[in-house]
């Protein structure tokens, strides 16, 4: 089915009314989340204090597994060829729905920042939790342990799973898990993400292919014998020039980003090695495939024109999100029950000072409010949750863990993710996720309706073919970027 027709299916799924039997979770679930709140904050802070890059989340993965093991989960570690990936299971397999919670944990390079409201890089530290994945993983554990308690106390059928998913930031960890069939028997997947507001709106994201163009040249003295050299950096710059000209001739909504991740070491040496790291995004995966193929042709031309050699290593590739309104309504109802994030005097002082560094400064009271619900919200970011959403009905949530006006991937996000404001927003996320999960476990009819919508949106002819074209995870992709 063509992409625009899939999106148009949204009009049809409005006929899928939320089943009247969809049950609200009991208050005991919230009590179980709240009883774990102190420990959840400690786990989130531990991940914040020891930020680890994609595929290097050794301590983070071990801590999340430890907490789940204490709660009675069975752990399968090192899945899908990724040492830090895991699947944790609790409940009755083969009876009742299987509900998955996704837990991210990786940090971003170059984002070290203290948990204070002014720019304060941490000496000797590079990485930082600029996307709040420390809170992401901790809150999922907080929700999962509460659901496990409810399953045990109620004797209900069903299984709750936590998927420890590494390297969301450019490593496409969930794609390897989906490709390995780890979601094949899952009925519904839930996730959440830190943000500067509270929303259960469902919508699309951008499909994305990322990779590294590497040029090989011939080194020489840049002054004494430049004629003997062939500059790999020239190849990179020629590629970048062609990519920038290409921007005029790609479909609307296409995003092309790059950095020169290796441009040589000294101006007086003709560099024999250079590298450009590229992302290509669009809501339609087919457009992404086409544009990255054109860039590979441009790299060949750049190499020919500069007397160098060019290769391309794909590092990531993710689908856009496939929304689900039936599940979105369940998440919205759970969010309305929990509400927004309430600041105390210390939070307000922190937020007011931090906002002085932001170009946009929404009212701080917006952290306590809920954004309007929508089932068709357009998004500009990319996530490997997209691949999960094309394999199993999936629903997401965001809560106000950051000061209103804070963008993701900023030092301000790092600061709030390590502050009490972040912990409060993550606790709200854990409460909402636990409520939504138990509501689904209590209502097979809702799960069936979500599956029906999923099938309509995806289309009868759909076949999942990953955008990621590499056999094994690039476990050292962050390390090599430093070399």
What does this entry look like structurally?
InterPro entries: Amidohydrolase, Aminobenzoyl-glu_utiliz_pB, Bact_exopeptidase_dim_dom, Peptidase_M20, Peptidase_M20/M20A_hydrolases, Peptidase_M20_dimer. This is Amidohydrolase. It holds the Pfam family M20_dimer. Keywords: Hydrolase, Signal. With 483 residues, the chain is an alpha/beta fold. It folds into 2 domains: 339 residues, Aminopeptidase (3-Layer(aba) Sandwich), CATH 3.40.630; 112 residues, Alpha-Beta Plaits (2-Layer Sandwich), CATH 3.30.70. Helix content is 40%, strand content 16%. It is built from 15 helices and 14 strands. The strands form 4 sheets. It has a 6-stranded mixed sheet with strand order 1-2-4-3-5-13, with helices on both faces. A 4-stranded antiparallel sheet has the order 9-11-7-12. Strand 3, helix 5 and strand 4 form a beta-alpha-beta unit. Helix 4 packs parallel to helix 5. The radius of gyration is 23 Å and the shape is globular. The N terminus is likely disordered.
